Amino acid sequence: MKNIPDLHDWQKMKAIHPLFPHIVREVLRHVPATQTLVLYGSQVTKDTDAYSDYDVLIITPAEKVPDFDERAAIEKNLAQQYGIRTQVMATSPSALWLELRLNPYVRHWIEHGIVVGDNTVFSDPLPPLAKEGARVSLGSIETDLELMTEESNGRRSQAEVLYRALRMLLLLRAAICGNYSFDVREEAEKRLGTTLVRRLRNPKGRLSTHDLTRLKQEVQTLLKEVRALVNLMPENTSDEELRRHVWIYKQEAV
């Protein structure tokens, strides 16, 4: 995690990536209540290809969190001005507290990201993934896979669901093991081969029946492995904190 304390320190951001200052300016123009921005993903780790987008997490006070339409407007303006695709997410410090304990993917974003602005919204060190978070994340992946098998999707649609599940399972496995220096695309290429991963990332890439079968097999193998890890995973301090959080919330609601 690299921190740039000043949201307007354009030179430091430009030194990392020439478009980062423009992205931050656009976010601040739409969401002036922004406390903290996290720039993350392949554009930060320099693991880009022709299909890479720009990932942004906005953190604001709870009552100021931008809704879907506001985030879509930022994405549209950046596309029109700079010809780039962005994925803009938003949360509040209180929601982030929960997400860091329940969502295995957010921790990866923060660990690899560039934090612009107030970094006190993050505890030091960052908390571990709760067992409950691992269990819920696994259940969500399994549901996506079940829905795919129930629908008569085309080969490309099925491959997109499977490849997304593979990436999420890899990140979940890494979080359970406490490994946040993990390169998900590199691991996917080890399992599937560089050529197949390129075809999967290319929206127009041609996929054979053999490609789909191989992808299904890899996902099923990894799914069994992650299920076993979740079952064996002990509870930790994050589980304890979540139980206290729920108890306090119930007491306040009485």
Going by CATH, what is the homologous superfamily of the largest domain? Answer: Beta Polymerase, domain 2
Q: How much of the residues is beta strand, in percent?
A: 5-15%
The count of helical stretches stands at 12
Structural class call reads alpha/beta
In percent, how helical is the residue content?
Answer: 55-70%
Arrangement of strands in the largest sheet: 1-5-2-3-4
Order of helices and strands: EHHEHEHEHHEHHHHHH
Low-pLDDT windows of residues = 248-254
Spatial extent as radius of gyration: 19 Å
Question: How is the CATH topology of the largest domain named?
Answer: Beta Polymerase, domain 2
CATH architecture designation of the largest domain: 2-Layer Sandwich
How many individual domains?
Answer: 2
Task: Name its key features.
single chain; 254 residues; alpha/beta; Beta Polymerase, domain 2; 2 domains; five-stranded mixed β-sheet; 12 helices; 61% helix; disordered C terminus
Describe the structure.
Residues 248-254 have low confidence and may be disordered. The chain has two domains: 2-121, Beta Polymerase, domain 2, CATH 3.30.460; 131-232, no CATH class. With 254 residues, the protein is of the alpha/beta class. Helices cover 61% and strands 9% of the residues. It has helices at 10-16, 20-30, 42-45, 68-82, 93-102, 104-112, 131-150, 155-176, 184-192, 194-201, 209-232, 237-253; strands at 2-4, 36-40, 54-59, 86-91, 114-117. The protein is globular. The chain contains twelve helices and five strands. A five-stranded mixed sheet has the order 1-5-2-3-4, with helices on both faces. Helix 9 (184-192) crosses helix 10. Helix 4 links the parallel strand 3 (54-59) and strand 4.
